[in-house]
Amino acid sequence: MNLIWEVSLTEFALVTLVLGGLAAWMTGRAVALTWGSWQRLAIYIALLSLAVRFIHYSLFGGTFLLPPAGFATALHYYVVDFIALMLIAAAARQMNRSHQMSEQYSFLYDRSGPFGWRRKV
Length: 121
Description:
The relative contact order is 0.16. The protein is mainly alpha-helical. The protein has one domain (9-119). Helices cover 68% and strands 5% of the residues.
């Protein structure tokens, strides 16, 4: 057991960063395309983190939130998964929002890097 991964680094990278990260990226993109808020994104990522925690539990023998004996450990790794997935989803949302603002409001904004936009002068 480590502070970031529960079973092994490979398992954390495969389940949380690859499988969950791809789903988080698509979730962030979907929230941006529907002009959703940060709160909506956080709710979706909280649910996705719960699903990722269940995959850790069911396939690799990690902890889950239901048995009271391992609740504190499972909550810690749930928060780790949530933070990792939220960072990925936030990057996807901001990148897509930047594209939206520069494309749909091209008369007002120019793209300023992959994550931002600036007002035209």
